[in-house]
Design brief:
Layout (H helix, E strand, L loop, with lengths): L5 H5 L17 E2 L5 E9 L12 H11 L3 E11 L5 E2 H9 L2 E10 L2 E9 L3 E9 L6 E9 L5 E8 L7 H14 L6 E6 L7 H7 L3 E2 L20 E6 L4 E8 L11 E7 L2
Parallel strand pairs: 2-3, 9-10
Antiparallel strand pairs: 1-2, 2-14, 3-4, 3-6, 5-6, 7-8, 8-9, 10-12, 11-12, 13-14
């Protein structure tokens, strides 16, 4: 599925499987009637920790402690042998009581490898948006989420190519901007961008959306044991739809080679 037609994202959705939906609730409200949301981006390395053990229950415990409303997960397996042939998005959704959607990059070891979105609120449709191939095939996963006040936001999860030459990432990011530029609802863009501040890739999104900034004293997201790079981000757009927000990485050294990023932001009335 190519990324250019917006209708493919907004109208032609995949069937979204999910756990039984809990009573939806916002993280909090503000006096002006806005909706406070807690958003998490986490590259889970298919549940394989730095101890080389695949332990999805451990991943679920990390996420549970973060108490998110919306989660973007990267490096997710579905029925892949290396992770015990488990549908990881469905399993994590079940353990956390969240809805889930999965987008496949490619077939791998008897299953599929890709990324996922989890949500406390109903996911009304989800569509993988095919991006230009790089070192590996890539998609962005776009999911429309219905909030407790009846509004909808589009959540777009990405995991761009990891090779040192940024040409693959730039092509993938450019293709995604053709979709972002046609959106007519507030959106959250999050994930593992595999590029750092000041890069050509990040500049494309900074021209269109607001990056939820991390503290200058603690902004590195990779690796989890010796953080030296900031490559995981959360953006929101358009600016008029969102109040002030911020993000911060969480110290978690065992469950993955990335640190989870938690963002707090308010969607204005």
């Amino acid at each position: 599925m190519r990324s250019r037609p917006l209708l493919l994202v907004l109208v032609v959705g995949l069937t979204v499987a999910g756990a039984c939906v809990p009573s939806v609730r916002a993280r909090g409200g503000v006096a002006s009637g806005g909706l406070a949301l807690r958003i998490v981006s986490y590259n889970i390395r298919h549940g394989r920790g730095v101890d080389d053990s695949v332990d999805l229950a451990r991943t679920a415990r990390v996420l549970r402690d973060l108490a998110p409303d919306i989660v973007g997960l990267q490096e997710v397996d579905r029925t892949v042998r290396r992770s015990g042939s488990v549908d990881e998005a469905a399993a994590l959704g079940g353990m956390l009581g969240l809805q889930h959607a999965f987008g496949a990059f490619m077939p791998y070891q008897g299953g599929e490898y890709g990324l996922a979105i989890l949500s406390r609120f109903p996911i009304t449709r989800a569509t993988p948006v095919r991006l230009p191939d790089g070192n590996e095939p890539r998609v962005a996963l776009a999911a429309e989420v219905r909030l407790p006040d009846g509004r909808a936001v589009m959540v777009i999860n990405v995991h761009f190519d990891w090779v040192s030459n940024d040409s693959f990432r730039l092509r993938q990011a450019t293709a995604l901007t053709t979709v972002l530029d046609t959106l007519r609802m507030p959106y959250v863009l999050l994930g593992d961008f595999n590029d750092e501040p000041g890069s050509r890739t990040l500049a494309l999104f900074e021209a269109r959306a607001t990056q939820l900034r991390k503290p200058a004293s603690d902004h590195f997201t990779f690796s989890s044991t010796e953080p030296v790079k900031e490559i995981d981000f959360v953006f929101v757009a358009p600016a008029r739809a969102w109040g002030t927000g911020s993000a911060h990485p969480v110290t978690e050294r065992m469950a993955s080679d990335h640190r989870p990023v938690v963002a707090e932001v308010v969607l204005r009335p």
